[in-house]
Amino acid sequence: MNFPDPAGKFFTSIIILAGLIALLILMYHFFRFCFVGIAKWRCKKHEMRWLQAMLNHGFFVQVAKLLPAFFIGRIVPMMYPAESVALQFYKTLIGVYIIFMLVKVICAFLDVLNAVNTAKKGADNKPLKSYMQIIKVILWTMGTILIGCILANKTPSGLIAGIGAFSAVLLLVFQDTITGFVNSIQLSSNDMVRVGDWITDPHGEANGIVEEVNLIAVKVRNFDNSIVTVPIKSMVNNSFQNWRGMSERKVRRITRSIHIDVNSIRPCTPEMLEEFKKIDCIRDYITDTQDKIERLNEQRHLSSTNLPNGDFQTNLGILRAYMVAYLEQHPMVDETSLLMVRHGNPEENGLPMELYCFVRTTEWREYEALQSDLFDHFYAVLPFFDLRAFQRSSDYDVVK
Asked: Full-prediction pTM beyond 0.90?
């Protein structure tokens, strides 16, 4: 194509450029109408998760922007001679555009892949979003290098060799990202935390539900609705408590003590035992235990009239048996889990009587109400067993 003068060449180039841009826009709208229209039509007739995700994340829109560039790349060489500067300019421009849009298409597909996998059951234990972010960083880095090669008219190997001196700087800039990526792989491979887990971080202020796991931190919504971010590195290197096992089994542990005044502990008299036998759940226990004690004392030739000479039942032992029997019959106590009532070490606040069991609820308010009901009952029956809970005397008691 020969032009009569420089001005004519300039205006002709402007017209050609405007025509190519107009053609690009028209083809974009055509492809977008076709792809998006067909996808929406298919989604209305059938529930297609992949197609819906592609529509939601604009995958077809990015493809519609990419395809016209290949068509224009075939037309331009027909309009200019091979040695033309304009041809080289258009080739460079089209090459940069294709690489840029190709990276955007792949990134949109990664978003689709992440959305589809996140919707699957059991996929919330993998930080897929973090891995997609790493892949995107790599893609944009490679795309930037290729665009630089096109603009500088050099091979990628030459450009990479040229930026080799800056590798240390690049490692320093992306240090947190690289470390976070490695730590997130450790966190995921060991299944240490998932989205939806209740975690407690003793080294910080995290005590709530995990909402997001990314390359840098784990985002936790505390029960007071405050948001706490715990660094991935901290969770890998330090300890934290995950309550997932409790949620999966649908049971939660109760471990709390009643402090008994040791001055109220005494041997059971026959009258006391008869009174305690009126309690249905421990009647057989008292009878069987008393028979064993009497046989053992007879074998050892010990007189039962002098209590220190032999074994005997105590009001505290009867209470412990009652607490176990009461918990075993309670409908909210899990019978398949460990259940026991034990003594702690005596201390200045009395003798701790610790209750250890698991109840069939993990809902916080219901759990606290059930725990309170159990201890309300046990505190209320202490006087029946002639026992007292330990409580320090106040100034009011002294004056009274």
From this structure: no
Q: Which of 264, 184, 172 is nearest to 217 (CA)?
A: 184
Q: What are phi and psi of 358, to 5 degrees?
A: -125, 135
CA-based nearest residue to 187, from 146, 226, 131, 136: 131
Q: Are 215 and 184 in contact (CB under 8 A)?
A: yes
Alpha helices of the chain — where are they, by DSSP H? 6-45, 49-56, 59-75, 85-119, 128-152, 156-162, 167-173, 175-189, 232-237, 244-249, 270-276, 283-299, 315-329, 364-381, 395-399
Give pLDDT tens digits for 52-64: 888 888 888 888 8
- How far, in Å, CA of 276 to CA of 278, rounded? 5
Reading the block at residue 55, the tokens are 């529509």
| Number of neighbouring beta carbons within 10 Å of residue 345 | 6
Segment 261-317, tens digit of pLDDT: 999 999 988 899 999 999 999 999 999 998 898 888 888 877 666 667 778 889 999
Is there a contact between 60 and 33 (Cβ–Cβ < 8 Å)? no
Pairing mode, strands 198-200 and 207-213: antiparallel
**203 contacts 238 by C-beta, under 8 angstroms:** yes
In the block, tokens 């040695």 appear at: 83
What string of H, E and C letters represents the secondary structure of 167-195? HHHHHHHCHHHHHHHHHHHHHHHCCCCCC
